[in-house]
Automatic annotation (TrEMBL):
SUPFAM superfamilies: FMN-binding split barrel. InterPro entries: F420H2_bilvrd_red/Heme_oxyg, Pyridox_Oxase_N, Split_barrel_FMN-bd. It comes from Streptomyces sanglieri. This is Pyridoxamine 5'-phosphate oxidase family protein. Keywords: Oxidoreductase.
Length: 172
């Protein structure tokens, strides 16, 4: 997916006069640099579940890890459709961009991409986030974690500041 630019469309109903659509390159940079993301899943009984987590943007997808018995992993086993969000850090109305990705969480189990992702995790978050790859999982301190990737099916950018805007990116 490198070099791929989805179609960006400004929603005039939710954007101020003078606003422009945000280029995907700006959203991708935010997704790459963010330290914290929010994952929204649905429990088997239909109730929502939201949790913060760390992750890595690589190969056109956001990747995250979780223990097999954690709530988010159990939710994903029942229904893999998710929403991931991140944004600029100060939560002010005067500036920033929030990005929302909708997609399907899919397990990553192949050793080659897992090793690449483990190196990316450690490069981004430091040596305390070192993972070995074993049996299709990340392993740290004797604990195994499942690794998932979410490729955007639909994404939105909510701009704040001089002009409030809502951009929708379409993926084919």
């Amino acid at each position: 997916m490198s070099g791929f630019e989805p179609f960006a469309e400004l929603d005039p109903d939710y954007s101020e006069a003078g606003a422009t659509a945000c280029p995907w390159s700006v959203a991708r940079e935010l997704l790459t640099g963010a330290e914290v993301y929010w994952l929204s899943t649905v429990r088997p009984d239909g109730r929502p579940h939201v949790t913060p987590l760390i992750g890595v943007w690589a190969d056109g997808a956001l990747h995250f890890a979780t223990g097999a018995e954690e709530r988010k992993a159990r939710n994903l086993a029942a229904g893999p459709e998710v929403v991931l969000t991140t944004g600029t850090g100060d939560n002010s109305m005067s500036k920033g961009l929030d990005v929302v990705i909708e997609g399907r969480a899919e397990r990553v189990t192949d050793e080659v991409p897992l090793n690449r992702l483990a190196a990316a995790w450690e490069a981004k978050y430091g040596p305390q986030w070192h993972f070995d790859v074993r049996d299709g999982t990340f392993v740290n301190g004797g604990h195994a974690a499942l690794v998932f990737q979410v490729r955007p099916r639909k994404a939105f950018g909510f701009g704040r500041g001089a002009h409030f805007s809502q951009t929708r990116w379409r993926f084919s």
